[in-house]
Design goal:
Mean pLDDT: 84
Number of helices: 11
Shape: flat
Order of helices and strands: EHEEHHEHEEHEHEEHEHEEHEEHH
Low-confidence stretches: none
Number of strands: 14
CATH architecture of the largest domain: Roll
CATH superfamily of the largest domain: CBS-domain
Number of domains: 3
Length: about 280
Amino acid sequence: MVDDVVSVETPGNRDDVLRILKRTGISGVPVTNKGELVGIITRKDLLRKADETQLSLLMTSNPVTIGPEASIIEAARIMDKNKFRRLPVVEKGKLLGIISIADLVGAIAQMKFKSEIKMGYTKPTFALWENTPLPLVGRIMEISGYDAIPILNKDSMLTGIISERDLIKHAMIEDSVEVSDLSNGTDDDDWTWESIRDMHTISFGISKVQLPDKLVKDAMVKEVVAVPQNAEISECALKMKRSRVDQLPVINGDKKMVSMLFDRELIKVLLDSKISA
């Protein structure tokens, strides 16, 4: 696990979390109150609840945790079952550290698994055109559930990868003022709140996480690390660790992309293997 954990304390602000995710590139942060874990906030929470600012409404309360003496196989099992990317490590209510998919991938890199990734670990995916607007890419990610999407040019050649990390990196806070018109009511009932409606309008501030109106090719990672279909599991894990990526495009002999290898699929080797705790 990582024991030097970046966390936020309640009460706090969404902008603090966004700054942390931009600076570190991590996918989520634990939320604590007087040293005790009370929740966790992820990149998805910020992108899906773009107009929410309070940590207590953004975070997942009472998150699933794991103890410091648990095996990495147990951690992999919990992450795979619940589709988590990280698990807070807690003992007697106190946050001791965090174990992530990236940490498990690092362990797999050292275990020298020789099996090829085509033996059940790659997944089909879809791609987007490099001139797709970034806000639309964010919406497509939200709908599809994909954390990363390959990007193609007009010749169908792979030119980059866009991930949630890249979206957060380019996200910005947009403040605006909206007006609620209370004078437009059509209530004909004798019991009305006309005296309130006579105030006409109420102005209130809105603060949202927004993606800029730019093309995906201007935000994507262009130096793509790809692997062949017969690449070995630990070899791929090492590439992920060294490149600090969550996914690798898989190419055939003609160097055309045929599938994707996601880190969340790669950790399943720990469940399929017979290694001991």
